[in-house]
Known about the structure:
Number of strands: 4
Order of helices and strands: EHEHHEEH
Strand order of the largest sheet: 2-1-3-4
Number of helices: 4
Distance between the termini: 10 Å
Amino acid sequence: MSETPTVLFxxxxxxxxxxxxxxxxxQIAGTSVSVASAGxxxxxxxxxxxxxxxxxxxxxxxxxxxxxxxxxxxRRAHRVIVLGxxxxxxxxxxMRASIEHWVTDEPSERGxxxxxxxxxxxxxxxxxxxxxxxELR
Length: 137
């Protein structure tokens, strides 16, 4: 692919999982990949626990805020990845990518909450992102 690949991560609120995936890919890919994230129903702010556990791994959400998914984001992306099962995303005319779904760990279903939960989520997302980056190279 001659142009820089663009990856779009989507979740409902764009406050946790999609932001974590985007920050992780930015951290490992640098400028070799263009990264965006958005939500189907964006929240008001980034999840503070997500911010905290990403900082533990050197990734940064400082300048990020939840953003609304729109059709132009979908059209520009080479890879469209929906994290979790809650966000519903339909293809739009002119999209070049198919919509992929990543089933992500949800430790709260096992009674794990707080920082421990968010670290497990981060680690699972990081594993997916590393696989994705390997495919993009």
